[in-house]
Design a protein that fits this description.
Elements lengths: L9 H7 L2 H4 L2 H7 L6 E5 L5 H7 L4 E6 L2 H10 L4 E4 L11 E7 L8 H10 L1 E12 L5 H13 L3 H4 L9 H10 L3 E9 L2 E2 L6 H9 L9 H19 E2 L2 E4 L2 E8 L1
Bound molecules: benzoic acid.
Benzoic acid binds next to loops.
């Protein structure tokens, strides 16, 4: 898997991709934060879930790799603490009672380092509550995209492996190998309604799949996105709405 630095468009993220944090509300319920706890929101994006956790608990830190997202989060929630950091290489003092992470860990290619780092930054008995893309996540979208790229000779782009989408067996094994005790693990199918009714998949590709279009001729980019969306209509367009074929894994583990 390649580590590619994704340039986030924080405005577009809030305008059209608020489903990322809307779905995270039930993960905050699973976290069940306590007022006395110090909690890290790892991959906080524009800070909505950090704020939801902070509504209950005194000390929350939002961390994100993207400077644009950190700026956005600081602007939206100036009373909260946000800092830039790398999920596979950060050190916090004091350590956290819990680390929460929604829709982030699939972006971290060095997932073992991230697991080690989360473990190191927890107090004894501390927990992680995480959710991200699981095995076969966005498979319909990515396989259709790869076919469209290959058919035009963009083999290098089609071969890109950008994300980490493990099964719960794979991921719990990684967590156990660094010392965690896993108490809960779930894989589930979560078709995710896309905000744009006309350009749903096209818009998703523009927001999240940019690296696949590196060095692709401008006119081909447009055509490929349109073709991918058309091919996917029978599968992903239902009742006048577009859905992305998301699969999630959700895990709770203790130090
Ligand atoms: C996800 O949340 O599953 C996801 C988002 C962007 C790219 C890939 C996966």
């Amino acid at each position: 898997m390649q580590q590619i630095v994704h340039q986030w468009n924080a405005e577009l993220y809030n305008e059209k991709h608020s489903f990322v944090y809307d779905y995270g509300a039930s993960l905050v319920d699973l976290l069940n934060p306590k007022p006395s706890e110090r909690i890290l929101d790892l991959g906080c994006g524009s800070g909505e879930l950090t704020a939801a956790i902070a509504a209950v608990c005194n000390e929350v830190v939002g961390m994100d790799f993207s400077p644009a997202m950190i700026e956005k989060a600081k602007g939206r929630f100036p009373e909260l603490i946000f800092q830039r950091g790398n999920a596979s290489d950060f050190k916090a003092i004091p350590r956290f009672d819990a680390i929460f992470s929604n829709a982030t860990l699939h972006w971290v290619s060095d997932y073992k380092a991230a697991a080690t780092c989360m473990y190191a930054n927890l107090v004894e008995g501390g927990r992680i509550v995480v959710e991200f893309g699981g095995k076969r996540n966005v498979q319909a979208i990515t396989s259709t995209l790869r076919d469209a790229l290959k058919s035009r000779g963009y083999d290098k782009q089609a071969a890109l492996d950008l994300w980490y989408f493990p099964s719960i067996g794979e991921y719990t094994t990684v967590l156990e190998s660094v010392g965690f005790n896993v108490t809960f693990a779930q894989w589930y199918d979560r078709p995710t309604e896309l905000a744009d009714e006309r350009e749903g998949v096209l818009d998703w590709l523009s927001m999240f799949a940019k690296p696949f279009f590196m060095e692709v001729a401008k006119e081909d980019v447009k055509e490929i996105k349109r073709e991918v969306q058309e091919h996917l209509a029978p599968q992903l367009f239902r009742g006048g709405k577009w859905y992305a074929d998301y699969k999630r894994i959700r895990v709770v583990a203790y130090k």
